[in-house]
Every structure is written in C-alpha cells, then in structure tokens.
Amino acid sequence: MADCLLCDVRGEAVLWQNAFCRVTLADEPDYPGFLRVILNAHVKDMTDLPASGQGKLMRVVLAAEAALREVMAPDKVNLASLGNVVPHLHWHVIPRFADDPHFPHPVWGARQRDTPHAAPSDLDERLAAALSRLLGCAPETE
Q: Model's pTM, two decimal places?
C-alpha cells in the first residue's frame, strides 16, 4: 500500500528477515532493544492470516522475545499488537526494566523517570546474532 509506513522498508534497522516477515529495531531512544516484528504483506489483523501464517508470525514474535531475554535480561518483556494508527500487522516486543522511563506503566503511559535503561554498544549485533541462531538465516516462503 503506497501510504503505509510499514510497507515502506527504507531506513529500517532490520535485524532479521525472511520472505514472510522481518524484525526491526524501533527508533525509541528511551527503549533500547525495542523490536518490531512486521509482516511483509499488507495485512490488517492476525485473523486475516491463515492459521499457518498466524503460527509462523508468532514463532518470530516469540523468538524476538527470547532474543531480548538472552541478550538484555529484562525484568519483563511486553508484547503488543495495536495497529490503530498504522493498520499493518506488526508486533511490538519491548524489553522492560524496573529503571526504564515508564515502569511499571506501559511504555505509552505516564512517564516515571527521565533516564533510559543502559544498553551495550553492540546491542544491535547481539540481537541480530541471537535472532539468526533462533530462527535461522534461510528465507522461508508462505
């Protein structure tokens, strides 16, 4: 779709991808490690996918959570699929820490403190390596 922000992949920090979906690092300075799992096809809701596609997408969402837990050891990982503003199927996979700016509230909630949780300088590379190990490197097709 021409006006869809998630159909346009230019400028994304892609950590892992295949023919079906991709995992990107969100540009959220307060939340290092904030990932998005984005379906490559312009689809609005999970139930628009066949059951096999739903399973494939959730496998990637869960691998993204596992990669965050392995690399960052967060206190919690939040999963969210909203799409109210951008109705293109995607999942937010957000590492949460007791010292992050909004904890214990949602990242879109009331700010509690000003300093983001510290992250290693090689976070992108470490997450990409974990995703490749968990999901493999070979492209899949639907």
A: 0.91
